[in-house]
Structures are given as C-alpha cells and as structure tokens.
Amino acid sequence: MTFTSCATIQGLLSEPTVWETVSALKEVLNTSVFRAIDKLAKLNQNGVESIIPEEIKPVLATLRTLGLGDEIDRVTKSIGDASEIALTESKGLVSDAIKEVKFEDAAAVVMGGPDAATLVMKNAMYEAVKKRYSDRLNVELEKTDVNKYWPMAQSAHNIFAKNKVEGSLSDFLAAKAVDGLFIAIGKEEAVIRKNPNELGSTVVDKVFDYYNRQKQGNGTSLSF
Fold first, then answer.
1. The pTM is what?
2. 172-183 per-position pLDDT tens digit
3. 3-state secondary structure the chain
C-alpha cells in the first residue's frame, strides 16, 4: 500500500511527457468547447436580438426605411435559425479540429495565459469555422431578398458610420459569431485552469499540477 501510494505520487510529480502535455491540453479544450457552446445556445434562446451584432442593427433599420420591414423580420428569424444550427454543427467541427491541432511547444502553452490553448486552436481553425457559419447563414438569407438590398444599405450606413460594416451580411455575421465563440471558449479554459482537478482527469492533474509548481518555483521533492 505504501509503496503503491509513493509510486503514484512520484508519477504525478514527475515531468510530464510531450504526449501527456498535449493530451491534457486537448482534454481541456474539448471541455471548454462543450461548455462554451452550451452556454451560447442558452443565450440564443433569449431571442435573435441577442445574436445580431450592434453594427448590423442600423443597417437593418435602413432597409426598413426602404419598405422592407417584412423582409427584415424574415431575415432576423433566418439569422436566429441559422445561428442555432451553425452553433450545433460547430461542436463536431471544433472537436474534430482539436484532434489535429499542433502544439509546437505544449509546455509553453500550459504555462501561458488563461486562454493560451484556445488561441492556438483559433489560429489553426478560425477560417474553417467562419466559413461553416457563413455558408449556413447564407443558405437561410438566400430565402429572403436581403442580399439584393444589402450592398445599398451597407453603403448608406458606411458613409457616416464610425464602425464600418464590410463584406456580405453572412460573412460579417459569421465573423462576429465565431469571434464570440472563441471568446467563450477562452473564458471556459480560464475557469478550468484555476481548478484543473475538477475535470477528474489523471493526465490533466499531472500536467497542470507539475507546471503550476514550475511557475511558482516550487521544486517539491519527496523521499520515500
């Protein structure tokens, strides 16, 4: 019993391998992704107004002044429907991408900022996730006439607006949605980093306990 306990503790205190460190980071990311998406899905239930970026609202208001009120109502519903579908689809997309994420220096990521792993993942797959969102949004928007009038309203808005709205409506909405997604994932990563033991994972415990001791300069040594 004593020898087994000592061996277990020494295993936890020993320096993690690269494989263990990468595995821990991917486990933290997977948990962060699922938590973030679940929370965003609940926010979406508050209505489409909580999804539409503030920059878009004046442009949609301009379109209303052109007599397109009914179209805008359909557009906002389409945005809500597409966002919900895209968010659900992103679970699988992001989870698959995490398997392929390359951590050039996994130890540095563990010892990095509160969202260091999220930033690595964002750099690796931002465009792929944004395209999935944009494609899904565009499918819904094509059911309305908004894309036909969008450039005109966009130009009118940008003449005097401080914050310009660039690109197609689906691309703009997708960029905002994906930015929000990665911010949410980063926040969940930060929460886990404060208490990695909550995941109940041996490899996460070992990796984060070890490197947290390194950051604190606590070179704990035990004799048995």
1. 0.81
2. 888 888 898 999
3. CHHHHHHHHHHHHCCCCHHHHHHHHHHHHHHHHHHHHHHHHHHHCCCHHHCCCCCHHHHHHHHHHCCCHHHHHHHHHHHHHHHHHHHHHHHHHHHHHHHHCCCCCHHHHHCCCCCHHHHHHHHHHHHHHHHHHHHHHHHHHCCCCHHHHHHHHHHHHHHHCCCCCCCCHHHHHHHHHHHHHHHHHHHHHHHHHHCHHHHCCHHHHHHHHHHHHHHHCCCCCCCC
